[in-house]
Structures are given as structure tokens and as C-alpha cells.
Specification:
mainly beta
Length: about 110
């Protein structure tokens, strides 16, 4: 059974950095995404990595970097210059045979 496990969230001051990790057990996916969901808001796409290509939501472009590990079942999100509005639960996501597969989420809290 394929599972996604995130780690690396935490509490950081505005301007700080965090690195999130996602490990997929049981398979390797060519396309992997990070989403986040702030309290009372819908889940939103943050960044996508597909092969060697990356794409970012406008609010994080230039501050966040998505990457793959040497073990292709891992994915990272380096978050720099964090802002209070980045506070959310961050989720790793893939499509597994056409179905959405989500990790359990990791909380990121940015204090002002």
C-alpha cells in the first residue's frame, strides 16, 4: 500500500526558514506536489515537481524551492523568508492510478 509521510514542520519567526520532507513508500511518482491549507480556507497548490520541471504558486515564487531527493521517492520543500500568511498545514500529494493520495500533513506556523 502506498503511503506519503511528511515531516519538518514547526514554529518559526517571520523571515525564518523550514525544510519539509515527504517520503512515498511503495512506489515512485514522476509528479509530486505540495499543498497547504490555512484555517478556514481551501487546500491550495503550493508547488509541483514533474521530472526536472518545477512550478510554484505566485505567493511563494522566489521564496520556496521544491526538489527531489537522490532516492526518487522523496521530495522536499525548502521554505525561506517565511511570512505569517504561510501558516498552514502542508500536505504532500500524488496521483496514484488517478486517485488523489495525501499525506497526513505537517503544521507550519510563522509568528510575526
Amino acid at each position: 500500500q502506498v503511503q506519503l509521510v511528511e515531516s519538518g514542520g514547526g514554529l518559526v519567526q517571520a523571515g525564518g526558514s523550514l525544510r519539509l520532507s515527504c517520503t512515498a513508500s511503495g512506489s515512485i511518482f514522476s509528479v509530486m506536489d505540495w499543498y497547504h491549507q490555512a484555517p478556514g480556507k481551501q487546500r491550495e497548490l503550493v508547488a509541483t515537481i514533474s521530472g526536472g520541471r518545477t512550478n510554484y504558486a505566485e505567493p511563494v515564487r522566489g521564496r520556496f524551492t521544491i526538489s527531489r531527493g537522490n532516492a526518487k521517492n522523496t521530495m522536499y520543500l525548502q521554505m525561506n523568508s517565511l511570512k505569517p500568511e504561510d501558516t498552514a498545514v502542508y500536505y504532500c500529494h500524488v496521483l496514484n492510478y488517478g486517485r488523489d493520495l495525501w499525506g497526513q500533513g505537517t503544521q507550519v506556523t510563522v509568528s510575526s
